[in-house]
């Protein structure tokens, strides 16, 4: 199974349009030892021909253009085609679903999501552009802890199978209270486990509010772990912006705090450990920083746009 990291930053990207934090200023000035990043986006494929997205980032258009495997090819006397078969939505955050609107153009698309996230998407009439003609949009419902296969159009070959974990219980702030009262909080924020046809396992967890024993035992079985690297410290936004919420309040365990991911996942020796969904304020983006060194010395990698590996 091919895995491509098309985007590795948290919502807003790096640099973020309205941010003048030290990281954003220096990456714009070209003085940062480190790379700019687009908003988190993964693509996977079992046959290098049919691709599935994990989420749909607002940067999807440029991410597709910079990835030749995702370019269309003329088929059956038509110039309209895409190797992208579908996407798995793990939450209804703007930076995770906005890219759906970039895939309208009457192209067939299959979405895997919880029914709570599906209803939130369908409440917004703009997404009806994905369903203008018969057969354009189809849905599969996914529920925490249940396995589901990722089918492409060629059913005769083995395909990856997936399972989602319930991680957080906060829906995005834009969801109206009427919809919230009819939504299942266990479906608000999910992590994804993917088993490749080879038997190797990938865990993709871009938003983890807390690391439980149950989660740890799941991660012990992974071969590659892509984990929430949003914030270095719990009070990062408040310190850098002068206001805002803590990482914890935003549904993210921080990297360095006591009880943070560096400490709690230190004993996981087996999986390849990669931080992803990194906020522009996170000091570990600066490769010259003690924070960057600390993470690398602990055996972690820090995802960059364009990385590619095989499982
Ligand atoms: Zn910034």
Notes on the structure:
The structure is a single chain. The model has no long low-confidence stretch (mean pLDDT 95). By secondary structure, the protein is α/β, with parallel strands linked by helices. It has a seven-stranded mixed beta sheet. Helix 4 (115-123) links the parallel strand 5 (109-113) and strand 6 (137-141). It contains nine helices and 14 strands. It binds zinc ion.
Short overview:
The protein is of the alpha/beta class.
Question: Keywords, please?
Answer:
18% helix, 311 residues, alpha/beta, binds zinc ion, single chain
What's the layout of helices and strands?
Elements lengths: L1 E6 L14 H8 L11 E5 L5 E4 L5 H6 L18 E5 L5 H4 L11 E5 L1 H9 L13 E5 L5 E3 L11 E8 L8 H4 L8 E7 L5 E5 L7 H7 L4 E5 L7 H6 L19 H4 L7 E5 L13 H8 L3 E2 L5 E3 L1
Parallel strand pairs: 3-4, 4-5, 5-6, 10-11, 11-12, 12-13
Antiparallel strand pairs: 1-2, 1-14, 2-3, 7-8, 8-9, 9-10
Bound molecules: zinc ion.
Distance between the termini: 5 Å
Small-molecule binders here are: zinc ion
Report the total helices.
9
Elements, N to C (H/E): EHEEHEHEHEEEHEEHEHHEHEE
Helix content: 10-25%
| Portion in strands | 15-25%
Class per helix and strand makeup: alpha/beta
Q: Name the shape in a single word.
A: globular
Largest sheet: 7 strands, mixed
Mean pLDDT: 95
Radius of gyration: 19 Å
**How many β-strand runs?**
14
Q: Give, in spatial order, the strands making up the sheet with the most strands.
A: 6-5-4-3-2-1-14
Low-confidence parts, pLDDT < 50 over ≥5 residues?
none
